[in-house]
Amino acid sequence: MTARILIARGGDAGERLAAAVRARGGEPVVAPLIVQAPPEDPGELATAMSLWNAGLYDWMVVTSAHGATAVADAGAGIGGAIAAVGPATAEALTARGLDVALTPDGDFSADGIAEALLDLLGEEPTRILLPVSEIAGTTFERALREAGHRVDRVTAYRTLPAPETRETVEAAALVASGACDAILVTSGSIAREVARRFAPLPDTTRVVSIGHPTARALREAGVRVDAIADPHTADGLLDALERLDLLSAAEHPDLTPAPESRTSP
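^ that's the sequence the OP posted. Answer follows.
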């Protein structure tokens, strides 16, 4: 029997994930639960990019593909060195002509990028620009500030609940009826929307989180977690579904990793 998998994110990443689910014998249902919007005050980001281009920052840390698009659209050029939270973010930056100097080896999270950067930086205080969603957590900046570095946070975009659409209404009905075998959750903001729109979930619906911070967000919202991707990428999500006997182990295309931004929901 074909497993029906709900993909709660949209855009190119959602479509690539849907194609990969099909390639492994599943039936994807794409229903984005969140959307991104420009910051309410775009001037703040524009000013930050001017300072970046002028060389006033040693590093810029980008924690999501959305953040990569936002800084590129705001005019980011050659400044200091750029760190990306994971491969998908690094690819988004590179696609916009921005070189990436650092990506964590395996932990594609705020903890991972903080540890990687702290290992690289010396004791000399460093000035770091952090463009994130307005609802981003403070894990990264807290770790760097405690180590004596200066972190300037700027809102690069907003993360908002997606409006009700035919896709989201049909997805809610599918989940409520027990006809959805699994939900893929790739960020804390999506976790909260899953709880708001779908809870309580049927016992037969498996919930797969892309990482431990997203899993925490799910549990805090009262949603159980059945599996966590390892590694924290789109391929890791598919492998987790395989371990739950929902997808086949057949060869599948190498996906552009879709890591959750633990700093940026």
